Amino acid sequence: MLEEREKETLLNNLAEYIVKMKLSDIAIFLLESSKPISFLSSQFLIFLRPFISVYFNPSTYDKFVEILSHRENIEKLINL
User: Fold this and answer.
1) 23-62 burial, b if ≥16 CB within 10 A, otherwise e?
2) What digits encode the pLDDT tens for the residues 17-50?
3) Which of 31, 37, 77, 80 shows its CA 20 to 30 Å from the CA of 23?
4) Are 11 and 68 in contact (CB under 8 A)?
5) CA gap 14, 76 in Å, rounded
6) DSSP character for 36?
7) How far apart are CA 71 and CA 18, in angstroms?
8) CA-to-CA separations, 60 to 27, 52, 57, 71, in angstroms, rounded
9) Residue 37 DSSP class
């Protein structure tokens, strides 16, 4: 389980990256639509891990999967 401070840091980094890439509108749309199935979405991200780990640090990816598996964290990310 991640500490609250570490969650906040990762969520802030993700939000800053989304804004920097000018993807905030589509990100909000996708996050809002995925809230009802957040657990299922996180399981799909776990399934994709072997492919995604080629591009991203596996430990950071695992932390994001854990964060996004909880609906309240998705709401926090939308509000950032």
Assistant:
1) eeeebeeebeebeeebeebbeebeeeeeeeeeeeeeeebb
2) 999 999 999 999 988 888 888 888 888 988 999 9
3) 37
4) no
5) 11
6) G
7) 19
8) 19, 11, 5, 19
9) G
Query: Residue 20, class by beta-carbon neighbours within 10 Å (0-12 exposed, 13-18 middle, 19+ buried)?
Result: exposed
How far is 56 from 35, CA to CA, in rounded Å? 24
d(CA 16, CA 41): 22
CB distance 61 to 49 below 8 Å: yes
Give the separation between CA 36 and CA 40, rounded to whole angstroms. 9
